[in-house]
Amino acid sequence: MFINTFNHRRFIICLPWLLGSIAFSAFSKEDLAENVKGDSSDKPNFVWIVSEDNSIHYQNLFFDGGATTPHIAELAKKGLKFTHAFSNAAVCSSARSTLATGVYGPRIATHYHRGLKKTKLPKDWPLFQVLLNEAGYYSSNNYKKDYNFKAPQSIWHDSSKKASWRNRPDKSSPFFHMESHSASHESRMHFSEQSIDSKKLKHQANSVKLFPYFPDTAVFRYSHAYYLDKQLEIDRIVGETINKLKQDNLMDDTFIFYFGDHGGVLPRSKGYLYESGLHVPLVVYVPKNFRHLVDFELGKEVKGFVSFVDFAPTLLKLAGLDHPEYIDGKAFLGIGVNGKEVNNRDITFGYADRFDEKFDMVRSVRKGQYKYIRNYQGYYPDGLHNNYRYGQLAYKQWRKLNNEGKLNDIQSQFFQPRPAEQLFDIEADPHEVNNLADQPKYQQKMTQLRRYLNQQAKTMPDLSFYPESELIKKANSDLIGFAKNHQDDIAALVDIADLAVKPYKLVADELKQHLSSNNEWHRYWALINANMFGEQAKGLTEVITPLLQDKSVMVRIRAAEFLGQITQINPMPTLAKIIATEQSPGVVLAALNTVTYLTSRGLELNSELQVSAVARKNSLVRQRIKYLKSSIVSHKNN
Predict the structure, then answer these.
(1) Cβ–Cβ < 8 Å for 86, 365
(2) Cβ(396)–Cβ(435) under 8 Å?
(3) Distance CA 615, CA 124 (A)
(4) What is the pTM assigned to this prediction?
């Protein structure tokens, strides 16, 4: 363990704070905040430099074949490189909501991208930015927020394109500044085929190391090289921010965090719980005057696992503040944080649900070298259409090659149904293409990680075991109260959902019982399981067919989905009626997602779908309708 050199000046400065901490229980929250406000001169500054949509796989500081990023590397030399830093979510709004709250998204329904209705946080949940503000910090955000919750007005002193620590009224006050940079954002990959010009690239397209699940084409090579060039832009931006801090003589007092806001951005990354979607670069520069707050040797790697839920408590700890009890994360820097203990942390939890108009429900646990992925709706292929995603030429070409039968087994996985469970050895298989879940030698590991995930879902509890539309209707005003009152119900749903990981013959009778349950959500999850089993569950047709008339609209959707999947009936009359009459955008989107899924399996649409006036106001509904309309036109032209 690194032992700090004793610093008499720092001890004298910190002594009043230490005495104040001892007397914490004697003060009310208001008294404590006021007390800290008056003594903020000895606190460190914080700068978060965030590059949008990039995983570790594009920077050679973290991954072989990545771009050279000298400014980021220089920060690491004078600070710490975290080799196992993870976003808990694989897309912007969900990831940033986790960063801002320090809370797992499925616990408070902030994990849907983007939320159809923003979550109302409890009034007694002060965000860490607000606590910093109350402690005398000036907070600025330049400028992306993208939260799935209703943020309080007091979260930032300034959130704009001009926001900067330089704008704080009192230049002696400590500050927390966050800046997000879109040079690496997915939108940069929405170029046309006509604009491709490899001669303008700084990285040679013919020399890039394509990932094994990509087809080796000129489009994919150009896209990869082009994105490596974007890392050079990010590094230049990092250098510019460092220079500003140097100009202001702030480097000795400012922690600088550089990280990606989640993975990305080539296909099969952003939005997915593979390492390419979750594993982010993280470097923390440690300032000279606050070296004593860090129990690591500078210039070294930190191999312990840290996640976005840990960032909020870490900043509060570095600022000398306690974090609220509601926060799920754990500080990885600060007084009292043991470096050896941090390096022994080896687990991270991930989640992915609705991405714009594309539905899914996936959870992941990585412990050490092994990654467990639970696909609750694995019958939806990863490659199911999403309007924004297929703005990339690489996505479009990948799907075209798959439709033409020109991909090998690994390259075509993206367009195939996924098993309920996947297990990957990240050290041996960093791109997660070899699923070990069915191999006998890994069953003990599977059982361990499955139990952890189920326990997490039950104790959190994971609200996604109810549809998003149901949460909006019945829980949005008090999600925490709803979760508490329904924790046992959610635990039962977790157990029903887990029938999908067992052989069908062993669970067929139990599924039949749940399909006849008086509890609509038992019927709902039994139907999702039937969809997972597909043709194996054909014997349930007689029980499922009456559910097309179920009083629960979500049950009707899942029943139509199953019967359409096994081609027992034409599901369109049921689905079309729901889409035309339901007022809830969440319900209509779920039905449209089912139509999109079934058309990808060969269902033909012969006429444009009618949508209720209320639901049509939702932009995601309009996007789905536009795509399905184009499918009708394409079918007629063929």
Answers:
(1) no
(2) no
(3) 34
(4) 0.93
